[in-house]
């Protein structure tokens, strides 16, 4: 990619990078580590036309999500409605929305976006700012993505 002067890498992790999921501690930790690692790698390849970004999906309408609603004594519609109440958009994301964002990040139009975490969650993550380290001091900056 760097030799050609163009490349796109999109790492798909999870909103659990920012909001760990109980019982998935190892998974959340591994995803957070990979996300942080690739953010650093992205900056070292940007000048060669290679971008590396992360997509952090929240709750999307998938078989995996729906399977959590199934089982004896469960009311799938009530369980889905309860989860949707926590999402400001009031719904789950769709595969089409996810694909469109990923396709954009892979396109020539996203050449100036690199090292970013794009949160796709219908507004679920409750922060307007990310906290990061700048030099040796902690800084707050507007949330990107």
Protein model, in words:
- With about 140 residues, the chain is of the alpha/beta class.
- The strands form two sheets. It has a three-stranded parallel sheet with strand order 1-2-3, sandwiched between helices. Strands 4-5 form a two-stranded antiparallel sheet.
- The chain has helices spanning about 25-45, 65, 75-85, 95-105, and strands at about 5-10, 50-55, 115-120, 130-135, 135-140.
- The longest helix is centred in the first third of the chain and has 21 residues, at about 25-45.
- The protein has four helices and five strands, in the order E-H-E-H-H-H-E-E-E.
- Residues about 135-140 have low confidence and may be disordered.
- It has a single domain (about 5-50, about 60-115), classed as Rossmann fold (3-Layer(aba) Sandwich).
List the helices and strands and how they pair.
Blueprint: E1 7-12, H1 25-45, E2 50-57, H2 63-67, H3 76-85, H4 95-105, E3 117-120, E4 129-134, E5 137-142
Briefly summarize what is shown.
The protein has helices at 25-45, 63-67, 76-85, 95-105, and strands at 7-12, 50-57, 117-120, 129-134, 137-142. By secondary structure, the chain is of the alpha/beta class.
For this entry, give a set of tags.
Rossmann fold; 21% strand; 5 strands; three-stranded parallel beta sheet; 32% helix; alpha/beta; two-stranded antiparallel ribbon; 145 residues
Name the beta content range. Answer: 15-25%
Q: Level of helix content? A: 25-40%
**Major sheet strand order:** 1-2-3
For the largest beta-sheet, the strand count, sense and barrel status come to: 3 strands, parallel
Q: Please tell me how large the radius of gyration is.
A: 17 Å
Q: Specify the CATH class.
A: Alpha Beta
Q: On the 0-100 scale, what is the average pLDDT?
A: 87
Order of helices and strands: EHEHHHEEE
CATH fold-level assignment? Rossmann fold
Count of discrete alpha- or pi-helical segments spanning 4 or more residues? 4
* Shape summary: elongated
How many structural domains can be distinguished in the coordinates? 1
């Amino acid at each position: 990619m760097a030799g050609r002067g163009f490349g796109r890498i999109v790492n798909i992790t999870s909103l659990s990078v920012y909001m760990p999921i109980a019982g998935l501690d190892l998974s959340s930790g591994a995803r957070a580590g990979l996300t942080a690692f690739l953010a650093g790698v992205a900056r070292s390849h940007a000048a060669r036309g290679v971008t590396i970004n992360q997509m952090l999906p929240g709750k999307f309408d998938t078989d995996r999500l729906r399977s959590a609603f199934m089982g004896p004594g469960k009311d799938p519609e009530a369980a889905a409605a309860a989860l949707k109440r926590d999402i400001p958009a009031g719904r789950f994301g769709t595969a089409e929305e996810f694909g469109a964002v990923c396709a954009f990040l892979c396109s020539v139009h996203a050449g100036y976006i690199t090292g970013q975490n794009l949160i796709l969650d219908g507004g679920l993550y409750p922060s307007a700012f990310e906290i990061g380290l700048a030099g040796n001091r902690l800084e707050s900056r507007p949330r990107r993505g």
